[in-house]
């Protein structure tokens, strides 16, 4: 009898445990589920969230940013503008300025202009990045003046890109051609990359001269020439392909593919380099070049290159996975439609979203990441309930924690 009662009690306890677990899981799922649209919050709660954007605890500042992002623009934008102007904590001002870009509010432009003169490097970097994505010809004189004095290591590249976005202006062309030939290699590399990203045909001769020289800028110049798309670049690229050191070969292969020549074989070569470097130690430079080359191809619209990055990440060791993740995340920022199409057709998105999260953690481009987050959040709100697109956005929001 006693044994029977004990057994019955255990059965009841087991049922209760299962029910409790089920309730907890339901609560977690309900908490994790995105709201169907922006949610207004009390003004005091919004102000408190903004004040915690710089909290040392990751969960606290992430939840604070999440609250702000999901607040209607009519409520969030004025509060963020005020925070940028008045918050005592410089990091909070910076995070508020980044979040402000996600609300498409006209007041953001004035906040960006004012931030260009801030002593806070982070604020200036965000402002320059904003004017890269929102070019204003009236800003050119101010940007050119800043070019002569801005020395912030992570600020100057954003200033260069803001100018390169207005490459139709002769004053900008002359200034950037001058900059690519002087200063630290780090800054010169930023100019070269900007030439490629903004298809600066006017820089062809200068880049063709740089690509012929062995050195740390040869890779950058090769990729930039490929992005610009001038067929004349095939001659210098073919010439150095015969003599360039092995670590530079992946960039040359990617550049020739970008020019539309032997793309299938060059893509296969890049994928093979990643695989070989994963299986054989000592080829890290070639691995980084190959991963970056595949990333450049994917940004240009070669979906198969993004698929190769994803395939290479499966079972890869840490030294291989890091540059692959970085390239994969860069594709997400610079060709978001291609990345979304790739993710949508994945039956098991776990590895893809994890790879994306790893790459985002390594990227410093906070404004570009915010643009991606804004796209994903709005796509979620606009997608029909229970649709594949909404499910994808929900998984991205959960994995990338925004």
Describe this structure in words.
- The chain is globular.
- It contains 23 helices and no strands.
- Helix 14 packs antiparallel against helix 15 (249-258).
- The protein is 72% helix and 0% strand.
- Mean pLDDT is 91; it is low at 1-31.
- The N and C termini lie far apart (56 Å).
- The protein is mostly helical.
The total strand number stands at: 0
Question: Which stretches are low in confidence, meaning pLDDT under 50 for 5 or more residues running?
Answer: 1-31
Largest sheet report: none
Q: How much helical structure, as a percent, in the residues?
A: over 70%
Question: What share of the residues does DSSP label as strand, in percent?
Answer: under 5%
Helix- and strand-based class?
A: mainly alpha
**N/C terminus separation:** 56 Å
Q: In one word, what is the shape?
A: globular
Order of helices and strands: HHHHHHHHHHHHHHHHHHHHHHH
List keywords for this structure.
single chain; mainly alpha; 23 helices; 72% helix; globular; disordered N terminus
Give a brief description.
The protein is globular and about 65 Å long. It is built from 23 helices and no strands.
Describe the protein's topology.
Blueprint: H1 2-32, H2 43-51, H3 58-69, H4 73-86, H5 90-100, H6 107-115, H7 121-133, H8 140-147, H9 156-164, H10 170-179, H11 185-197, H12 204-211, H13 218-228, H14 234-241, H15 249-258, H16 263-279, H17 284-299, H18 303-313, H19 318-334, H20 336-344, H21 350-362, H22 366-382, H23 388-400
Helix pairs in contact: 2-3, 2-4, 4-5, 5-7, 6-7, 7-9, 8-9, 9-11, 11-13, 12-13, 13-15, 14-15, 15-16, 15-17, 16-17, 16-18, 17-18, 17-19, 18-19, 19-20, 19-21, 21-23, 22-23
